[in-house]
Amino acid sequence: PDLGQIYNLSDFEFVARHTMEKTAWAYYSSGCDDEITLRDNHLAYHRIFFKPRVLVDVTNIDLSTTMLGTPCSAPFYVTATALGKLGHPEGETVLTRASAQQDIIQMIPTLASCSFDEIVDAAVDQQTQWLQLYVNSDHEITRKIVQHAERRGIKGLFITVDAPQLGRREKDMRLKNVEDLSHVQGDDEDADRTQGAARAISSFIDTSLSWKDIAWFRSITKMPIILKGVQTVEDSLKALDHKVDGIVLSNHGGRQLEFSKPPIQVLAELMPILKLKNCQDKLEVYVDGGVRRASDILKAICLGAKGVGIGRPFLYAMSTYGVDGVYKAMQILKDEMFMNMRLLGATKISDLNDSFVETQSVPAY
Ligand code: FNR
After folding, report:
1. Are 188 and 203 in contact (CB under 8 A)?
2. Could you confirm whether 252 is annotated as catalytic?
3. Is the ipTM of this complex over 0.95?
4. 290 CB less than 6 Å from ligand 1?
5. C-alpha 355 to ligand 1 mean position (Å)
6. How many distinct helices (H) and strands (E) make up the chain?
């Protein structure tokens, strides 16, 4: 179908499933084990209801916001997803170009197919980019990556903390014929390629990473530090104690620990506790996983998230229609947001708060 026939983010997924190369589809779409967490990430949004306000003047709607201090056109960002060239010959730079046109922030993955500098060079003007970091067992390598990123103008360091080992993605493992990954940073000659694309590229990740390392990151960079992959209220409060700038409540899109709770549910538990402690302004809280509609984005913002990350939908849009596809996916979300905010009776992002949502169907903490 041509792009004009795409009406929502699931349409991109449908086209991708039927047109993408098998290996790429398996790597992008898979979750860990039985993919229950993968599905529940999205389903959890269905347990939250809106409480719309009528008779509000909703003539002018403004979606713009700031994330980590930088302005952007809407409260969602392109999260880090590895191996962009499996889906499109120009890889992650496709996401960069669409993000520039839409004024949306892009998080660059450590395991991008394009080199880090290629992705930064593809940026237009002062386009905001963040870096997702897999910490190398050799911290000198990590120090160089981080300091190089800071010199190149990266505005946030997202340290992935949910993946000391990559989860079992069986769909991916069944396709033993893994592509040549030699162009990927951190590729390991001895990696076992029969375990699927994920395992083949991840053997460098530091399994000893712990809370005490946060101080070291602080000492090597002035970039805001955000922990990506926090999965509980307990760890969120620990993150607060360690004075990081933010967290991403995330279970890696259901690719790591099966039965890790849906991030939107953790958000609903966390924010009242942060408020009680009067700490809601000390930590920017982001969520990702299963966001497929503007209503999902709005629910997260109402519950206190500063922004949401979106992974697979942009990968599917990129793989099927390139830059135009990703641009359209972002536009669909913005159009849906406009409509939903009008119907909700809110005109700007700062209007949104928990009085617009009903979370009684979310199990209490
Ligand atoms: C990811 N994700 C991810 N996260 C990360 O920190 N480093 C990485 O290299 C990757 N790679 C990656 C590849 C693919 C194909 C996917 C689908 C995901 C996780 C990602 O940043 C994010 O947490 C999820 O994608 C969010 O879920 P949705 O939006 O895909 O449902």
Report:
1. yes
2. yes
3. yes
4. yes
5. 31
6. 13, 12
pLDDT tens digits for 147-170?
999 999 999 999 999 999 888 888
| Active site annotation includes 28 | no
Query: In angstroms, what is the span from residue 264 Cα to ligand 1's centroid?
Result: 16
Q: Is 162 a known active-site residue? A: yes
The atom of ligand 1 lying closest to the CA of 107 is 21
Beta-carbon-side half-sphere exposure of residue 305 (alpha carbons within 13 Å): 28
pLDDT per residue as tens digits for the range 327-351: 999 999 999 999 999 999 999 999 9
Residue 92 near ligand 1, beta carbon < 6 Å: no
The C-alpha atoms of residue 304 and residue 168 are separated, in whole angstroms, by 32
CA distance 249 to 309: 10
pTM of the model: 0.95
Q: Which of 40, 88, 252, 327 is catalytic?
A: 252
230 CA to centre of own chain = 12
